[in-house]
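Hi all, a correction to my earlier message: I attached the wrong file for ATP-binding protein. Here's the right sequence:
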Amino acid sequence: MDAPTYAVTADPLLKLTGLQSDHVGPVDLELAPGALLLIAGPSGAGKSLLLRAIADLDPHRGQVWLAGQPRATIPPALWRRQVGYLPADPVWWADTVDEHLTGVQDDWLQQLGFTPEVRQWEVERLSSGERQRLALARMLGNGPRVLLLDEATANLDPENTLRMEALVMGYVREREAGAIWVSHDHEQRDRLGGRLLMMDQGRLADPAMASRS
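and the right structure:
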């Protein structure tokens, strides 16, 4: 059976056709510039696997385009800068924060509750919540056109959750980027707005369409 297509506009920023892995899909999806797509569903439904496939981090089948350009024509390293993936537990590889923050604006750090001095901190001194916020800044420093956010605020208190939400939404709006945000938090989904899709057993469904059927 063909997968339903969840289109936002006729000129998508991100387009998936038949994206499929061993546990996900097939998924057909379109994301417009400036748009937010929220994905919810039970643990093990395939939400993280879908984001990892879009980011080209796991083996998969199907086609993906960024602004009309096939992913196969974009070098993998460049793709992962333009389609940024932020997991709930980001990896750090260098000793100091600043070594990870190429291209990061100080005002982003301030919006996330840091002073510019955070650049000189040792990574090992960071709490899980600080790592999460700084990983968002690190990803934005690459100038991504699409943000893939996988429970991006899972380790944060309410105040810092709002800070991250505001920075993401401001970036999406100002740069006409697109975002796909996986979130278990229904209050967060209500705050952010955007279109909601539910995922179960590797397949996406639109709850609004289901309620009308």
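Sorry for the mix-up. The radius of gyration is 17 Å.
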